[in-house]
Amino acid sequence: MLRKNFNSENPWRLGLLVVGLFGGAFLIASFLRTPNSNPLFCIGGGLGREGAGSVQEGTTIQMEAIRHYATSQVVPQQSLGEVTVSFDVLKAIAPCNFLVFGLGHDSLMWAALNPRGRTLFLEEDPKWYQAVLKDAPALEAETVAYRTQLSEADELLQHYRTEPLCSPANSFLRGNSKCRLALNMLSDKVYDTEWDLIMIDAPRGYFPEAPGRMAAIYSAAVMARNRKGSGVTHVFLHDVDRKVEKTYAEMFLCKRNLVKAEGRLWHFEIPPVTNPNTDFC
């Protein structure tokens, strides 16, 4: 997620390359998909947003994204290599259900790369939420009031080990107030949707009072393990150069599920569990 800082790469070069990605996705969506033929449906069978998943809506977001990145020096925080990891998966399985932790200047990009799919953003900061949606009202997003702080990361691991409702055998999110790592404050649309891709690039995790990504990582693992449909859940975690992200990824997303590492991004493919009594990793 990008707020105020720029990517270290040349912004015009990266911007033009991002536009190129959109152009390819747009052409694929235009020529390979018709109202009666959807050869690139994701394995999970996500049919996109009700009402907002139409061809017109998808085309509008793609065109807004092309205009934005072609005329702005503000580019996604992730490098081109990191963006390409997620792009390759989206190209293969979109339209699908894509959950993104964090709103930023890259949000139009993620929505545009999932034409006809459902892309939902979860943002911690109500003011930033309003600022982004003011410029990109077509995005689907909601705010989240996290109940953790980065300074509690070590304590929360101990809490996980001692709280029965955090254990893999009992892991659930909706209404789980006992497990502090469970995101129990999300809307029903989050809980009722089976997410094919989950991008964790938020909340903030670089100062002690920030929410940190502990609960986002744990909850993504719970969603993936509890998947009812066939196929895996693709989880992308950014900023794995930081201690908390790396530690929680190895604890809940599992090294055995890591299929690709690019820069500061890890890509996991997490299968649904057949035996809920098994550990996360």
Task: Give a short synopsis of this structure.
With 281 residues, the protein is an alpha/beta fold. It has nine helices and seven strands.
Fold and architecture overview:
There is one protein chain. Strands 3-2-1-4-5-7-6 form a seven-stranded mixed sheet, sandwiched between helices. It is globular, with a radius of gyration of 18 Å. It has helices at 11-32, 55-71, 80-93, 107-112, 126-135, 153-162, 188-191, 214-225, 243-253, and strands spanning 97-101, 118-123, 140-143, 197-200, 233-238, 258-262, 265-270. The longest helix is centred in the first third of the chain and has 22 residues, at 11-32. By secondary structure, it is of the alpha/beta class. The protein is built from nine helices and seven strands, in the order H-H-H-E-H-E-H-E-H-H-E-H-E-H-E-E. 38% of the residues lie in helices and 13% in strands. Helix 4 links the parallel strand 1 and strand 2 (118-123). Helix 1 (11-32) runs antiparallel to helix 2 (55-71) and helix 8 runs parallel beside helix 9.
